[in-house]
Amino acid sequence: MSSDSRDNLEQRLGEQVRAFQRAVDQGDDEIARLLGLNRTDLRCLDLLLQAGPTAPGRLATELGLTTGSVTAMLDRMEKSGYISRTPDPGDRRKVVVQARPEIADQAWQVMLPLIEDSTRSIAGYSEDDLKLLLDFFERAIGIQERQIDRLRAMTPAKPAKKR
Description:
Blueprint: H1 3-35, H2 39-51, H3 56-63, H4 67-79, E1 83-88, E2 91-99, H5 101-122, H6 127-152
Antiparallel strand pairs: 1-2
Helix pairs in contact: 3-4
């Protein structure tokens, strides 16, 4: 394989990853719209559906939000009936947050076709193919997490002044 061919493949892969990110963003926008949530609230709901009952501090860490922002988000979501807060069974001074069962059912109804379509799309891959894809995504997630840490440590750019 020539260097030009590898460069071309790497460029195409990079373009496809970016196109995939845009498609996921657009899909998330539509899921949020259907569920009546903003994107941050959808990210919270998705995390709760995946992880189960979760402490607000973990939500802050996972979502990259301040504790104050998480409190405001949870107040909004609880008032709207999306989540419930209950005392932590291990420490009654703390609370755990969970998606309300009827909201979880609605979310799964919206997301299940995507999951099923994705499952069908990988059915033809061999175990070695799946291992390669897992390796790619594990590495890609690691890159994103490192870059998020780097970006969070940076000072925001100041807008250019108008002339």
